[in-house]
Amino acid sequence: MNHIRTVGIISKPGTERGKTLVPGLLQWLSERHIGVRYDHETAAYAGRADGLNRDEVPEDCQFVIVLGGDGTLLSAAVAIGDRPIPLFAVNLGTLGFLTAITAEEMYPELERALRGEHRLGHRRMVECTVVRGGEDVGRYMALNDIVVSKAPKAPMIELDTFIDNHHVCRYRADGLIVATPTGSTAYSLSAGGPIVFPTVAAFCITPICPHTLTNRPVIVPDSARITVIIEAPDGDAYLNADGKIGEHLWKGDRLVMKRSAHTLNLIRPPRLLYFDLLRQKLKWGER
């Protein structure tokens, strides 16, 4: 990592830990003559009124510190967009599968990152384009998943699905998840999908409560183009990217998903490997 002049901070709102952690972190960075850009939530913890909108925080930063859980990290990923800026994610949430650095490890790991001794994990993202009437009407990027789900009062929806030019099937289900390897331990896992190692170049297509029990999750290469055609009535289906942003869909809409040209870079503890994380977070091997 190049010489660190400025870092960003994005924080989860409403945590008691944030009230004590943020002032100390700002002091620590100031003592090392490192400039800071932070969001409104971080400013509130510090008793300041100069916070920025989250999408402004990463500008001119060498990396961004995320204080929160996986949800905060996903918001930070949206804020970074296509900038090649690493995220230093500190877990202040509950599970924190992506935010693997604990609050107690924060300062030693920051020292390691400033010395250039950190390890970077490169996470693939998925891009989704909404095509309506032959025109692109929406574009979304996600680190975890793109989800098509039924609206709250809608019945089961139908989703005609293709891989490149090959017809897969017409899913009749409560929805469909297209997950990256990173997202394979999120919603897709809860819906019965497999865990996919982060460096595997693949997407997982996982139906949500399918009407046909033989509709099982499918792994496809991330070089494939996944197309989902909405066969549900107008407004009965909803598109969601990483659980953060989305829109109602109309009958005949085409969702075209492919590997994004951008990757998210996560600063990882050097001694914590993927299966260590599975054992810690998912309690593998415990009774």
Structure overview:
- The protein is an alpha+beta fold.
- It folds into 2 domains: 6-118 and 270-282, Rossmann fold (3-Layer(aba) Sandwich), CATH 3.40.50.10330; 125-261, Sandwich (Tumour Suppressor Smad4).
- The protein has helices at 16-31, 40-45, 70-80, 106-114, 187-190, 274-282, and strands at residues 6-11, 35-38, 63-68, 87-91, 101-102, 119-132, 135-142, 145-150, 157-163, 166-173, 175-179, 202-208, 218-221, 226-230, 237-241, 245-249, 254-268.
- The strands form 3 sheets. It has a 6-stranded antiparallel β-sheet, covered by helices on one side.
- The termini are far apart.
- The model has no long low-confidence stretch (mean pLDDT 92).
Main features:
287 residues; alpha+beta; Rossmann fold; Tumour Suppressor Smad4; 2 domains; six-stranded antiparallel β-sheet; 6 helices; 19% helix; 39% strand; globular
Estimated share of beta-strand residues: 35-45%
User: What top-tier CATH class of the largest domain fits best?
Assistant: Mainly Beta
- Named at the architecture level, the CATH assignment of the largest domain is Sandwich
Computed CA radius of gyration, to the nearest angstrom: 20 Å
Q: Termini separation (Å)? A: 42 Å
User: Taking strands numbered 1, 2, ... along the chain, how are they ordered across the largest sheet?
Assistant: 7-6-17-14-9-10
Structural domains: how many = 2
The CATH homologous superfamily name of the largest domain equals: Probable inorganic polyphosphate/atp-NAD kinase, domain 2
SSE order = EHEHEHEEHEEEEEEHEEEEEEH
How many helical elements?
A: 6
General shape: globular
Q: How would you name the oligomeric state of the polypeptide chains in this document? A: single chain
Q: How many E strands?
A: 17
Nearest-integer average pLDDT: 92
CATH fold-type name of the largest domain: Tumour Suppressor Smad4
